[in-house]
Amino acid sequence: MNQLASSRNDNFEYDPVLYNADLAPVPASRRDWNWFNMATVWMGMVHNVVAYEAAAGLMAIGFSALQCLYIIGSAYFALCVAMWFNARSGTRYGLPFCVLIRSSFGPRGAMIPIGLRAICAIFWFSVQAYAASQALNAIISALWPGWAHFEYAIGGQSIQMWLAMCMIWVLHGVISTHGVHRIRNFELYAGPLVMIVAGIAAGWAIYVCHGVGPLFDQPSHLQGTAFWLKFGAAVTSIIGIWASYAVNIPDLSRFVRSQRDQVIGQAIGLPLTAILFTPMSIFITSATIVQFGYPIWNPVDILVKIDNTLLTLVGGATIIIAALSVNVAGNIMPAAYDLLSMFPRQFDFNRGSKMVLFLGIGVVPWLWFDHPENIYTVLNIIAGTLAPITGIMLADYYFIRHQKLHVNWLYVFSGPYYGCHGWRMSAISSMLLTLFFLYFSQIFHIFSFINSMSWFIGVFLSGLIYSILNYKKNNMNKVFMKR
């Protein structure tokens, strides 16, 4: 399974624009992640502030608690299926997303999906890191009351938050710039720890609400067509949290030793952990209504409102660990690979990681994070934008390449993946046509069904168009791979 497809000539000279040590296939001897490592990575990523707020906000738009669980279950089941299939190529060949995508888009055309994925990763990194900065700011304020009384502000941010952000950014750098094995070891402890503390917080919520009965007695405020349209849109929004990971899951699966390990690890770490974590966020949000009279989405605001030093320390530290956990594995690592793929002579993994940290400041996360009503809009845009890339990758690997890649040709400007001057127009056309279809319906507010199911339609439609455009070339590819 782990043997690479052989070429007729093993004396390939890889083009330095397409190859460096970090982009090379991971040999079987170095694929030492097992199912537990994969599960703990996902356990650490699932518990993050954006996922918390998105799940908690479902009740605010009219869904009952039980319907929220149906939404979460549907979204994570669809994600898990997509990731299982898209992860297989990474595990089989030891290749990252930014190399695998050349099979469908060509070596130059691949820069488009790689760039889109990098932008999403840097955006999410910045937002999660800002949440951790808020938590650190709350911790320091609890320990040092004078901290909160600094009056000076720069660029719309208090000096305290700038200092907290600097410390959090440095902490991210310490962990992420020591390679994927440091990331694996960090996730081994971070994921389970976050789950334990979240469970304690959920216990507090149940205590405040005097049980879970009142929570599940709350009726739904949505009926008929409105319910189903919002249900689909809510599922798409939850998928939007992880749509970028559905694209670049090979960045993680390339280090897993077998297909069995990646499947079991993702099954435990993604849908199971998410289904356990989501009720916790719903319980905690409901408890804030009981305790304070209105829902509080931001967990840092909850800690500040409760005003208990010990709780602030424990809760704030957990938020920081959760942000580090999702960022180092799910945002910094794929964005670093994307950057070194686009600029292999200028970047290695460590330099790419540092550049992600620097670019994250430019996202100005405080302008977005403090407006949680924008969450669903952003998530739907991300889901719709990345869906065509997922559909094209799946169609290319399973229907066009039949799970067989000629690895050496992915590192040169020639061969079956080269296309026209490095651009495979079938993939680019499929992506653009799908995006036009999806965004045309959104901009002009037509086809409500399409708007609410944009990720599913985007994956299916792009894969279908790509398969049709490559139908005649499919037989030629079979002949080439047999040579």
TrEMBL record:
Domain of life from the UniProt record: Bacteria
* Manganese as UniProt keyword: no
Topological type in the membrane: Multi-pass membrane protein
Question: In the record, what terms sit under GO molecular function?
Answer: nucleobase transmembrane transporter activity
Keyword match Transmembrane: yes
Q: Which Pfam families match?
A: Transp_cyt_pur (PF02133)
Its transmembrane ranges are 39-63, 69-87, 152-174, 186-207, 227-247, 268-290, 310-332, 352-369, 375-400, 421-440, 446-469
Which keywords fit this entry according to its UniProt record?
Membrane, Transmembrane, Transmembrane helix
Q: Which GO terms describe its cellular component?
A: plasma membrane
Signal peptide location:
none
- Kindly give the InterPro entries that the UniProt entry links to this protein: Pur-cyt_permease (IPR001248), Uracil/uridine/allantoin_perm (IPR045225)
To which protein family does this belong?
Belongs to the purine-cytosine permease (2.A.39) family.
Q: State what protein this is by name.
A: Nitrate reductase
Q: Which organism is it from?
A: Komagataeibacter swingsii
Origin organism lineage: Bacteria, Pseudomonadati, Pseudomonadota, Alphaproteobacteria, Acetobacterales
